[in-house]
């Protein structure tokens, strides 16, 4: 009898888990991948920046996993709404939770809830065409905006704001989003780091891209990027060298300006009824802690995008640590027959590839635990979903959505694909 495993979430962690199960199992195994959206690939589709086409092509590799004969995609099935842990444990020998970290973190400063103060998660979802965020969510009508945080997501957001719509035309950005980017009045984008350049989380390749923008200059203040990096890693030395070289060069008069700041922390978002300014405080480190110096500066921005990290949300009935915002586990084991992988397991850090070794560890634990055990499952998920009126989106139906996106791109004379907007359009494309 084959081992039956349910994987919840079809991002990199979920699909690397399915692949590892196929590779590591010594006997027959079948995997059902449950996904709340009609589309697979998680943040590869709805996170990776649209102009990073080579990274997006990882979807081609993940597609290969979904096409393995013993792997099945069940889109439009949400854990916590359509099924719960007890349902899945009745139908499968084991369940692996891989639902990622979909929600923004907050800064905890006054004014954070003013209109115009937004999470990078929302903005990323918007330009990636995620069905949770409508296309009219953003109007880029401010000439100055601030992006808080100096990680790779902040760099993505800054780059999308700095590029022209023409530069993004060949990407899969939804047509309505592209129209709104073309109408953008943004001229200055401040990117704010609360510590020094040697502490920034962005990677060198991503940082360098900011210096190669044809539509924007980059400004860095010499006094803000002094740092002793002689003992630092190559990555940190590289970042600081690039920033210092930008500080030494003049502006070329390009239409937009990326203003990179360090040693400044946001203390208040100001405005009557909407964001009108951002108050910053100069910082320094005292015993390793970011500490305010009492020196303030106010930026006249109309939008504040917080890109200060993601966090996971608890899954109903599944253990969750509020302190680490992850599912507590031992090498991927949560409880008897329940496992976890990816960002839900280790928090929202690491590139796509990190999830491969992470998933492999979880699968090793799972297979060792289940070796020689008699199956205890006694129900069938298809029957259970049918009884609840849930009809999953199949892999073939997802391919119809992909085909409709390619067709749309062709009709608009754009690149390989243009994302369909909204669940209804996607479901129509797959004949439902
Ligand atoms: C904005 C952004 C850009 C990034 N860009 C890059 C990059 O360029 N290169 C790189 O290497 N890494 C990048 N990363 C990191 C990379 O995306 C992550 O390492 C990776 O996606 C994490 O994989 P995951 O499967 O744990 O989570 P996810 O990719 O988030 O997948 C989780 C999946 O679970 C589904 N799900 C959630 N809740 C439920 C539920 N209740 N029921 C069913 N399904 C559910 C979601 O819809 C989603 O499909 C980026 C991250 C972000 C946030
Ligand atoms: N191209 C790529 O490879 C790519 C693209 C996107 C994302 N990713 C990956 O995805 C993961 C998540 O990226 P991320 O950018 O969301 O997270 P991140 O790398 O953790 O960066 C978060 C940034 O927010 C800052 N921050 C946190 N709280 C703050 C606060 N209250 N006030 C001001 N600043 C605050 C952090 O500063 P401190 O350091 O001071 O806390 C840090 O600069 C990372 O591993 C990243 O590499 C990769």
From TrEMBL:
It comes from the Bacteria. The keyword NADP applies. Its EC number is 1.18.1.2. Residues 4-180 form the FAD/NAD(P)-binding domain. Its cofactor is FAD. Pfam families: Pyr_redox_2. It catalyses: 2 reduced [2Fe-2S]-[ferredoxin] + NADP(+) + H(+) = 2 oxidized [2Fe-2S]-[ferredoxin] + NADPH. Belongs to the ferredoxin--NADP reductase type 1 family. This is ferredoxin--NADP(+) reductase.
